[in-house]
Specification:
The protein is an alpha+beta fold and 79 residues long. The chain is 41% helix and 22% strand.
């Protein structure tokens, strides 16, 4: 991906251990954000990649994901 992500998002993540090893990762704030990781070191890079792909998809579909996330993060950072 040649485009750099300019914003930083704080998102709650749910890591669900899988019987075969690794984790399934979801975010309760973004239902379409789902990824996997073989170990904890892979969680952040894999979530970042999945989020970047999701953002690109929402932008292509002209959906307001970014706007909602920014408002949610502004609200949460004030608490």
């Amino acid at each position: 991906m040649t485009r750099e992500m300019e914003d930083i998002y704080k998102l709650p993540l749910i890591l669900e251990p899988q019987p075969e090893g690794g984790y399934t990762i979801t975010c309760p704030l973004i239902p379409h954000l789902i990824t996997e990781a073989d170990n904890l070191e892979e969680v952040i890079p894999n979530v970042s990649d999945a989020l970047a792909a999701l953002i690109e998809t929402y932008e292509d579909l002209t959906q307001p994901l970014i706007f909602w996330l920014k408002l949610n993060n502004i609200h949460n950072n004030r608490e």
